[in-house]
Amino acid sequence: MRLGKLHFQICPWVHDPVLWNGNLSASLIDSPHVDFLKLRIEKGKRQALKQLYNTRYCQMYEYWDWCEYGLGGRTPKYIKRKASNLLELFDSIRKRGFDKSSRVQVLDFPLWNSRGFSGGKHLLAPEIFHGHHRVACLYVLGIKKVGVDICQDIIEGSLKWVQRLNLRKGLRDDG
Q: pTM value?
């Protein structure tokens, strides 16, 4: 599947388009993840981590914590650990390549739409369900396509999806 077609999974009432360069769709291309990884390429790992707290990647975590009234546990230490993990993954893929057996899973229909939160045009498929960090790394490294498992949410409409979501691996799109 073409990476430029993929969208991040977003929660409609928490999504802040400012974090996606004003884009309501939460596309991979406009994501804070891609911006942060580009900073890593331009300035190096050490400088990217030094500038972390001035990035949209950090703002995204701070915003989510604010939406949870500060109870989300997204402290500066937590955010730095998440950023470090993303950079480690990026460096690993850069050095060793992408393990194609580690499939990215995308939903054929936006998760929140199946739960009655239509939210308009900004909830778009294909939506990354599992593997958004890997996909962001691949995109920044110039990879245009990746194999994905196209999945269906088989408990459509359930508000207990966190505990009960089952994905049925279905179609494969090997790029």
A: 0.81
